[in-house]
Write a structure and sequence with these properties.
- By secondary structure, this protein is an alpha+beta fold.
- The protein has one domain (7-128).
- 33% of the residues lie in helices and 28% in strands.
- The protein is built from 5 helices and 5 strands.
- It has helices spanning 22-28, 57-69, 73-81, 106-114, 130-138, and strands at residues 7-17, 32-37, 43-49, 84-92, 118-124.
- The protein has a 5-stranded mixed beta sheet with strand order 2-3-1-4-5, covered by helices on one side.
- A hairpin with a 5-residue loop joins strand 2 and strand 3 (43-49).
- The protein starts with 6 loop residues before the first strand and ends with a helix.
- Mean pLDDT is 88; it is low at 130-142.
Length: 142
């Protein structure tokens, strides 16, 4: 059985606002899938790229930035009114490799900053393999 490997999962766009986000999420809808939203203050919306396997962190972030940078003036006003604009990176931890780097070039970070957005990361813990779990539960020594 192979050991689980560390991998990039996806990037979610997480928005929070004192104003309804429907107009903004409607504009983003052709390119982004709405995962969740709330209908009362604070208004929240979570989106991810529509119909795309996330090939890498940098490519996924750059695709999201291109969408955001092309917003109409009205949609950009709704974006600017948001109290939180977060690109939330998901990483699945594994047992292999020992270390793995997920990098964003300086110019991508500058684009994120120019949109007054933040970037956060969640690393999900590695799941034990069935063989390892079985060995632990049946080993009387330990």
């Amino acid at each position: 059985m192979t050991e689980p490997t560390t991998s990039f999962l996806n990037v979610d766009l997480e928005l929070t606002s004192d104003q309804p986000l429907t107009a903004l999420t409607d504009v983003l809808a052709p390119a982004m899938f709405l995962l969740h939203s709330t209908d009362e203050s604070p208004y929240r919306a979570n989106l991810e790229l529509e119909g795309m396997d996330a090939p890498s962190l940098a490519i996924t972030v750059e695709r999201i930035l291109a969408i955001l940078e092309s917003l109409s003036d009205d949609a950009r006003a709704a974006w600017d009114a948001a109290t939180a604009r977060v690109l939330h990176v998901g990483i699945q931890s594994g047992l292999q490799p020992h270390a793995m780097t997920f990098a964003l070039p300086a110019q991508v970070l500058a684009r994120i900053a120019s949109l007054n957005a933040a970037i956060t990361t969640t690393v999900y813990g590695a799941a034990e393999t069935n063989a390892a779990t079985s060995a632990k539960s049946t080993d009387p020594t330990g």
